[in-house]
């Protein structure tokens, strides 16, 4: 029995298994500039910092050994949505409480 010859063609499955690199720059939620948001991860300190170089929006989060820049960007989107919803509910309560309350009828008024 002899050795098999190596095929010069790679199987299609091997090509599909290649890792696609994840994005490291993103679109800003506030100024909408493409590739203006960058994420820096300091694994030793356990902190990630996200910053837009155009409008200077910033976000900071804790990281672990599996955290990637896209994870921090997703957390930033979620935090911005939560802040917007909280602000909307605060506006509703302020608007409803700013109405004047009718004065109660006075007892023993001088009109009698």
TrEMBL record:
Compartments, record wording? Nucleus
Per its record, how is this protein called by name? Transcription elongation factor 1 homolog
Which molecular-function annotation in GO is an example for this chain? RNA polymerase II complex binding
User: Where is it found, in Gene Ontology cellular component terms?
Assistant: transcription elongation factor complex
* Listed GO biological process terms: transcription elongation by RNA polymerase II
- The source organism is Coniophora puteana (strain RWD-64-598)
Role according to the record: Transcription elongation factor implicated in the maintenance of proper chromatin structure in actively transcribed regions.
- Which residue intervals are annotated with compositional bias (Low complexity) in the record? 92-101
Q: Which residue stretches belong to region Disordered?
A: 87-112
- Which family does the entry's similarity section mention? Belongs to the ELOF1 family.
Keyword field: Metal-binding, Nucleus, Transcription, Transcription regulation, Zinc, Zinc-finger
User: In terms of domain of life, where is this protein from?
Assistant: Eukaryota
Main localisation? nucleus
